[in-house]
Design goal:
about 325 residues; Rossmann fold; ligase; nucleotide-binding; EC 6.3.4.19; Chorismate Mutase Domain, subunit A; alpha/beta; tRNA_Ile_lys_synt; six-stranded mixed beta sheet; 12 helices
Length: about 325
């Protein structure tokens, strides 16, 4: 008897490995109705049945286009047809902090965490692919925010697991087509106001044309190496952080390796309320200048209303005023 088509088999194997690494308990698939997440949902339904594990689906309706509620309802029907349980649609309100992409992402992840808690799920599976990882690395490179920004998306972070991160988008979408799943194309994926769309449509194909095939895989390998380095440096920085109560002695900060000092400065800024999505390398540069290039300059204004100042040989970060 012949097995499934190669692309379907590849997606199922990736999901099988992810499920085997999880503790017992239900899992949820985050599904937008796009090809990648539908392929993930179908593979999870198949592998969960084989493993006698309960698997459900949650779709998040961001309310950002007129037909969003109908799309969510269609995804719910597909989830039931695949045999997933529970299947839910969650409507969220998208704010403005950090721009439209970041605000939608914040609302989506909060909704997924709440759905997982309600279902008692041990994991939420996300459908990011190797190509998504490559795009994330290029966007991080453009921001110039250091090793962590090049580290891309981790395969696992807390509840969230990305079993398809090692598979090309073409493979995942071939699996979706092979299973004849009805795909919804998010109009935002063709909106060139978004940097990720421009990277996907223009930058990666140009790199492939100029440098040869395999660029996405190479960028994904870069992300893995950068993540290993960043994790090691973050652990060192956390173990020797000189900040207490929002301040640190300049004498402790100045001689430290730049990789540690800049991590301390970023962590201190986050601790006083700077939004992570708005805190950039330029802000850390300005704080570092108070340590290394002190000329009596005034306070550094940080995102969210926090400030950094140098007083009596100490760098002091203060939270926003109420």
């Amino acid at each position: 008897m012949s097995g499934p088509p190669p692309a379907v088999a590849a997606v199922r194997v990736a999901v099988r490995r992810a499920l085997r690494a999880l503790p017992p308990g239900p899992v949820l698939v985050a599904c937008s109705g796009g090809a990648d997440s539908l392929a993930l949902a179908a593979a999870t339904a198949f592998e969960a049945r084989a493993a006698d594990r309960r698997a459900g689906l949650v779709t998040v309706d961001h309310g950002l286009h007129p037909g969003s509620a109908a799309v969510a309802a269609r995804v719910v029907t597909l989830g039931h047809d695949l045999g997933l349980d529970p299947v839910t649609a969650v409507r969220v309100a998208v704010g403005r902090t950090g721009g439209p992409e970041a605000a939608a992402r914040t609302a989506r992840y909060a909704a997924l965490e709440a759905a997982a808690a309600e279902a008692g799920a041990v994991a939420v599976l996300l459908a990011h692919t190797l190509d998504d990882q490559a795009e994330t690395v290029l966007l991080g490179l453009a921001r110039g925010s250091g090793t962590r920004s090049l580290a891309g998306m981790p395969p696992t972070r807390g509840l969230f697991h990305r079993p398809l991160l090692g598979l090309a988008r073409a493979t995942v979408r071939r699996a979706c087509a092979d299973e004849d799943l009805p795909v919804w194309e998010d109009p935002a994926n063709a909106d060139d106001r978004f940097a990720r769309v421009r990277v996907r449509r223009d930058v990666l194909p140009l790199l492939e044309s100029a440098l040869g095939p395999g660029i996405a895989a190479a960028l994904a390998r870069t992300a893995r190496a950068a993540r290993d380095d960043a994790d090691a440096l973050d652990a060192l920085a956390a173990g020797a952080d000189p900040f207490t109560g929002g301040s640190a002695a300049v004498a402790d900060l100045r001689p430290a390796p730049a990789a540690l000092r800049r991590r301390w400065l970023r962590a201190a800024a986050l601790a006083v309320g700077c939004p992570a999505s708005a805190l950039g390398a330029g802000h850390v540069d300005a704080l570092e200048a108070l340590v290394l290039d002190w000329r009596g300059q005034g306070p550094v204004h940080l995102p969210g209303g926090a400030e950094g100042t140098r007083r009596c040989g100490r760098l002091v970060l203060t939270p926003p005023l109420d």
